[in-house]
Amino acid sequence: MVVKKKIVLLGDSAVGKTSLIRRYVFDQFEDTYIATIGSKVTKKELKIPQSRKSANLKLMIWDLIGREGYQGLHARTFVGVDGAILVADITRRETLLSLERYWVPFLIKVVGDVPMVFTCNKSDLKDDFEFDYDEIEEIASKYNKGFNEIIPEGLELCFTTSAKFGSNVESAFQSLGHLVLHNKEVMDPIKELYDSLVATGIRRNADNTTPVGALDAVIVDFCEGFDDSRMAMLILRQELARAGIDINNPRKKDILKAVEYLAEAENEFKDNKIVISNLKRRMEWAEGVKE
Fold first, then answer.
1. Following DSSP, what letter does each residue of 111-150 receive, concatenated?
2. What is the spatial distance between Cα 42 and Cα 129, in angstroms, rounded to a whole number?
3. Nearest by Cα to 151 from 140, 162, 161, 160
4. 34: pLDDT confidence band, cut at 50, 70 and 90?
5. Which residues of 201-217 are buried (b: 16+ CB within 10 A; e: fewer)?
6. Rounded distance, CA 21 to CA 47, Å?
């Protein structure tokens, strides 16, 4: 039996994400940089050694545009991700900083804690290094708590890689393959909130003038409009992440964004009059929040 897992490569533009995928899947390298537009998927089958026999794993490898302004696209791509390879260009310090500033927090906000393997790519350009391996290793340790317990001997959570020469490329993907195959599912915090609000009807604060109360009201109202709870959950996760909502400490400005984004999503499924009515009602809750 073949197990399918969705993984994504994340990092700024020109760090070498596409080159790493080409090296791993096709054992090819192209010097000319071609920017990734939108997202694209490549498949790769591999065997993961186990105690008695190897497991057959098919990785669905997503490569997407490496610019921070595309939050909607990134959120939609992140849904269903089982793990990620975070890529920094070792010749550009800013690409390391953006992993913690944007890519890792946004991924976690959408899918919760998933295995992540960190790479500092372009290790062949030794004279141009702007940061040390120790710095990205520290980040990897911070965000992979628990996963180091299931990584086998000989594999790591952090690598220096060279897509040009293939250095450690196979090992990085092999490590993530092992982690996503053996990782136990972690409860999605947004799904957990969704279940408590919709399935049990328990709200954290019935006062809609508080940020938590208003957010809970918006979530319940949105979900009640869908017969398909799975579809509601998918849209909810995407748009709350896109709005930058911290579900435990929501801010008024982020709730206002979320209301607008949810209306945009509903516009694809519902009559325009219903969408406008929903938007008006939820906007009143959001605007009535006292901080």
1. H-S--EEEEEE-TT-GGG--S-HHHHHHHHHHH-TTGGGS
2. 30
3. 140
4. low
5. eebeeeebebbbbbbbb
6. 17
The encoded tokens of residue 110 equal 């959408």
Say what the pTM is.
0.66
Burial of 63 (0-12, 13-18, 19+ CB in 10 A): buried
Q: How far is residue 30's CA from residue 183's CA, in Å, rounded to a whole number?
A: 34
- Using alpha carbons only, what angle is made at residue 209 by residues 205 and 211, rounded to the nearest 5 degrees? 65
Question: Structural domains in the chain?
Answer: 2-182 (3.40.50.300), 189-287 (no CATH)
Rg, C-alpha atoms of the chain? 21
In the block, residue with structure tokens 């393959």: 177
Range 272-276 contact pairs with CB under 8 angstroms and sequence separation of 24 or more: 274/225
Work out the pLDDT band at 174, boundaries 50, 70, 90: very high
The Cα 266–Cα 17 span in angstroms is: 33
